[in-house]
Amino acid sequence: MRVLGIDPGLTRCGVGVVDVSPNRTAKLVDVVVLRSPTDAPIERRLARIADGLEAIFDEHRPQAVALERVFARSDVSTIMGTAQISGVAMLVAARRELPVALHTPSEVKAAITGYGRADKKQVGAMVARILGLESVPKPADAADALALAICHAWRTGGVAGAAIREAAVSGASGAAPSTDASGLTPAQRAWLAAERSAAVSGAARRLKE
Fold it and tell me: In angstroms, rounded to a whole number, what is the distance separating the alpha carbons of residues 180 and 160?
């Protein structure tokens, strides 16, 4: 499964492409950070990032696209740029009829490190380890994009999600647990916690609307 992960940003947009096999083995295909000059008009900046994404999509022909889900932050200008680039990326993917998935930072951290509150250094180190790299991809936008791609492949490739659901059902049915009373490993518990947190946050946002 070839996945293209995008860490959206107007000044720096991380893009990572990975091939992931059914046994969770991941291989780096390409990683790049697209940039746009801060002194250029917004429409030119968006076009520059879009051109870069178009070229990467055409060169690597991914089967799926993973984006970081945008959350409101105190810096309005930053969140606006992130949302705009997310829209551009979705459009580029839609024109190629590619599925797009949004993952929260907590989901990605839990999938990559087993801990939903891991810091960027920990995520970067695990990305390098998973891909067999000698050093952590830099800047952080590059590592984050690769983490998104790996997270998506593990989750939707019939590996991580299915394993977690199966373990949860086994634990609930009274089957012999493999690690603890719930039948889940620490990483699986972290993953479920991240998913539940995202679901609760989404419900809370809807109630406020």
Answer: 18
Q: Can 141 be counted among the known catalytic residues? A: yes
Per-residue confidence in pLDDT tens, the chain, 209 aa: 999 999 999 999 999 999 999 999 999 999 999 999 999 999 999 999 999 999 999 999 999 999 999 876 657 777 899 999 999 999 999 999 999 999 999 999 999 999 999 999 999 999 999 999 999 999 999 999 999 999 999 988 643 444 444 444 444 444 433 334 445 545 555 555 554 544 443 433 333 33
pTM to 2 decimal places: 0.75
Q: Name the catalytic one among 68, 107, 144, 195.
A: 68
Q: Is 6 left (phi over 0), alpha (psi -120 to 50) or beta?
A: beta
Indicate if 68 belongs to the active site: yes
**Long-range contacts, 87-93 (Cβ 8 Å, 24+):** 88/46, 88/49, 88/50, 88/53, 89/6, 89/8, 89/53, 89/65, 90/65, 91/50, 92/50, 92/53, 92/54, 92/57, 93/57, 93/65
* Catalytic entry in 107, 141, 144, 195: 141
Sort residue 91 into left (φ over 0), alpha (ψ -120 to 50) or beta. Answer: alpha
